[in-house]
Protein 1
Amino acid sequence: MILHVDMDAFYASVEERERPELVGRPLVVGGSPTGRGVVSAANYEARKFGVHSAMPVARALRQCPELTIVRPRMELYVDISKQIRAIFYQFTPDVEPLSLDEAFLDVTGCESLFGSAESIGRRIKQQIRSQLHLVASVGVAPNKFLAKLASDLEKPDGFTVISPDTLHATLDPLSVSRMWGVGRVTQRKLERLGISTFGDLRRLSSAQARQLFGPTGEHFWNLSHGRDDRRVVAERRAKSISHETTFAQDIQDLEILLAWVLELTEQVAGRLRSRQLMGKTVNLKVRYSDFHTITRSSSLDHASQSTDEIWQVASKLLRTSLPERPLDIRLLGVGVSNIQRHRPRQLQLFDEAGQPIRPALDKATDEVRKQFGRHALRRGSTLRHTRSRPRPELEE
Ligand SMILES: [Mg+2]
């Protein structure tokens, strides 16, 4: 069985935890309202005013004048993400993070030690609450697609189990828009054919589905039956580390896309550092509104775990390597491959002549501070990204 654990309004909830006086008030984590700042995350109070991620902060303020705006503190979120992951690892080594606040866990075979998948899910949710004072929504299901769907069904503070017995009863009434890979265009196309729910699609034969939609028809048809055979890929076995996000609205603005590349890079680099890894090849993935998807890669001259170095390459790929066509982007991803263990040169305590050199730890700490300081500055600029609520997405 697979668990999908997804933190509720993660950045905003962390800020509420750090500043209890903000609890119960509408709050967003985002950029400057006077510049082009946009909302990274909105708490549920703010959402009542129609404020959502990906919205310009200036507009959010018009809709909700008493809104509190907090600047993102990415290093804090990375740190808490590590603590959440440490809870996961108490139960299973098979953890596949999707982003700082979301992961798949394969708990198959852990039942004899820790009880059923459902009780493991409940314990994880409980531990996140009691130890970290944060709330996660959890989905428990036989595969990744269903687990991710499940964690979203009763969000926030959700806990949903989809078992083979309840599968069709749960899935059939759901809108096809919840399927990975069904965007607005496909949804409209399906609806024109009278298919608006999983159940409508499931009742076709696979041949009909193929006939109507080609090879992707069969993929959607399998999803309507709740079938998905992708495995959970544990991070320590991963050959690459990446983060991607699908925007609620397609983005045309290069500046906003660049700010997104920075956020995705920070997540990737944070994971590299927390796992003592470095990557040499930087990958950028772009999916256009028509689902045309391209990836571009470029290698650094040395393996790195630095946000800045990876960002230089990733942002250059975005600026210079895309085809000549209008920007109209639905999904953006940043990753690194060519992964290797981090072996800091600073660990050397004496130089060639046997003279003590600056203690390794100090230097490493300084470097981290320097790095975070730089990014804090960058984050304080008016350039902000949109943080949209990720749509379920077809994975390659
Ligand atoms: Mg989340």
Protein 2
Amino acid sequence: MLGQGVGGVSTPARERQVVRHELVRRDLEVLRVERLTSTMTRVTLGGDELTGFSALGPEDHVKVFLRTPTGETVRRDYTPRTFREDAGELDIDFVVHGATGPAGAWAASAASGHSLSIGGPRGSRLAPGGYERFLLLADESAVPALSRWIEAVGISAHVEAFVQSDSPDISSYPFPSTTTVSVVPTGADAGVAAIRDASPDAYTYVWAAGEATALIPVRRYLRDDLGIDRSDMKVDGYWRRGIAGADHHAPLDPDDPEA
Ligand SMILES: Cc1cc2nc3c(=O)[nH]c(=O)nc-3n(C[C@H](O)[C@H](O)[C@H](O)COP(=O)(O)OP(=O)(O)OC[C@H]3O[C@@H](n4cnc5c(N)ncnc54)[C@H](O)[C@@H]3O)c2cc1C
């Protein structure tokens, strides 16, 4: 029996159940564009091909397909922030990061009537039940997933949520109201300090996502200093400084791959 959260579904035990989906590519249309903060833009997509879309897990991701100015097609990972099935609308929140990058650039100039193709999600990893506390740490790229985590577990468990951002108006992002989200600076030191202050215990599940190299010390602190078992945490590099199209399945730290 599954418990239904606002933004997802959680499993009763500590394991994280995976629900597989048929892999479908969808050609969608931009319905609306909303600037949420100085660095984050919400693109609302619609179209007949959204029929059957499903994203049940807090960190689900879709592949966004984009054409570069040189005509090459690239794929980037994005979180389906909110799917309104009845309205046939899907929100994706993009960081407009100013660095060269086809996805950030596409979002910066997105307008209603533009088109975007997405693939997936291939599967949904559901939030685990059986934890009293959730400790969430995210940079801006992972703010949509952090929001989904809050929606999935924020009513049944105690959630401590930290967003790492240097944007002065990040608090304008429409975070779910059930949890107070603390804003801390970017970088590894601030990430480790946030975890240390929150003192995760044996009843805590820890999820951290954002820039990969900044998360290396965070994962090391969780694993080596706090002795948290890998089944009680997930640390995910959502992008890597200086690398285009970084693969989040690659080891976070190539010199210390997770055994
Ligand atoms: C599971 C998952 C879910 C994700 N969900 C989201 C989401 O909902 N919203 C979102 O905005 N991102 C999300 N990301 C991150 C996104 O996929 C990357 O930021 C991606 O690299 C952006 O592509 P790009 O074409 O703009 O830049 P790329 O071509 O990949 O990179 C070009 C340059 O920009 C830099 N760069 C890339 N991303 C950022 C950034 N966020 N800030 C600063 N510099 C950057 C790179 O280091 C590189 O130097 C997610 C990633 C994963 C793995």
